[in-house]
Every structure is written in structure tokens, then in C-alpha cells.
Amino acid sequence: MNTATFQETQAIATGSTAAAMAASQELLLIPLSKLRPSSRNVRRSGGTSIPELASSITRVGLLQNLTVVAAPDGEHHEVVAGRRRLAALKLLVKRRKLAKDHEVHCLLVQDDAARTVSLTENVQREAMSPIEELFAWKDLVAEGRPVEDIAADFGVTPLVVQRRLKLANVSPRLLADFGTQAVTLEQLMALAITDDHAAQEAAFYESPQWQRSPEALRDHLTSEEIDASRDAVARFVGLEAYEQAGGGIRRDLFADEHNGIFLTDGALLDFLARDKLAPVAEQVRAEGWAWVDAAPRASASDLYQFQRAR
Known about the structure:
This protein is of the alpha+beta class. It contains 15 helices and nine strands.
């Protein structure tokens, strides 16, 4: 077992507890086979699953050392902070990704401070703000990291990563207001339907307060487009046929699987609908009608020109 002195350790509590723990501690390299979980670890469950954490360790290594106390048998050390990290490392041994004697950096603390150290690590950590997290993931992509790798490292699906990257591309002004809670997450998600910052800002700041619901903002930004889930002509033509014909699509990453698809070329959609209706029109014309026209849409004024058949 290799030993190094760990000076000027970070204070893990306040007041008299901090003073009592400010002495030098040891940073050790301990074989995995000599580590086991401690009953004094305050964390029992929660957080990223063990397989996902193991995948993250495989990719980027163990970023935070374990905290241990000496076991009564004199041979082992018990982990008082880092139970899940230890479980992930053991899983990598089981998968033959690590040797059973792989050495792990561990901070040795006094036995009587074990539970305090464990509680402090889990309670006093400061989570990243939502804005910080968004830009951190954006920076990873800018560095060339594949979305799938980022998802594996953080124990989420690629779609979650794509959604957060989409939010990170919203107007800086709106993101700043999101940071001060002047814009809600739901509003930000609705505004992310477009990448046009000017359009995003106009939709939000030029609308009265009562027209800033997520639904109203989304409708404002897609007012010239066709909602594929609601439009009868879009359902008649079919999304696949429309795309094969070169039709443009805008997808709302925050909608469920069957919603949030907007068609940007209404003229092409109507052309495809007429083309699909043409054989039907020919069948009707063959019945002897003098005039037959197949129209994909009919307005109220169009219908007004006709009388109901009796």
C-alpha cells in the first residue's frame, strides 16, 4: 500500500468540528480487494445507477477519491464516503475491466469522524445551477464528445443530452432571465422550438404577460407551420411521403414521441394531397359527373358556394 501525506485538507464542517478535523490526514492507494463498505456511510440509495456510474468511471476515471477508516481486522479499510463509487468499481472488476487489486485513492480519516465525514460529503456539496450544467454539456460537445458518450457518462439518455443542448442554444438574454427565475423552464422549452434568437425574444418580450404561457409561445413561433399531429391533410399525406418529397420539418425535442412535429412547407403538402386524391377524382369522374375537382382543404367561403345534396 502506497502512502502520501495529505496536507491542508478542506474543512468538512464548521465550528469546533472543523477545528477538530483540521489536522493532517493520509491519502492512500488501497487495492480494491482490501476495501469494503462501512455501516456508517449515511447514504443508503439514490442517484445514478451503479452500472451507469461504472460506465462513467470507465470513460473518465474516478474523479473523487473514497474516504475510509481502518477496519478492526487491521487488513481492510471501510468506505464511509463513496459507497456507490466502490460498488461501481467492484462491478468493473466483475466485468473484468479492472483488476481485483486495482489501487484506488482513498482519504483515511479518524474512526470517530467517520459518520460526520459521510454526512458532510452528501449534505454540503453544492449542486451546479441549471445554467452551469447546460453550458458544461455544450462545452463537452464543442470539444468533440459524442452525445452518446456524454449520456453514458452522466447516466441519462441521449435525448436528455439533446434537450439540454437545445436549451443551451436559447437566446443569452432569455437564459439570463431564466437564471433569475424571470423565465420558467417550461417557457424556455417552448421558445427552443426555434434557433432564431430574435424570434425567441420577440415572442416572449413583445407578448403581454397573459400570452406567455408555454402553449401560446410555441403557437406564436409555429404560426406559419403545420402541426402534423393535428392537421388532417398532414395525416392523409403521411409524414414519410412528405419528407421523401423534400418537405422541411421542425421537431420539438420536448414533446412526446407522437407530437411536436411541424411541417414548414404547406404548399408542398397540399400538392402531395392533390396528387394522392387524383385517382379518387378520376374514379368519380368516370361515374359521369361533368365537373370534378379534388381539393385538400375547403374554407367556410368555399363551402358556402355549394348547396347540400338532398
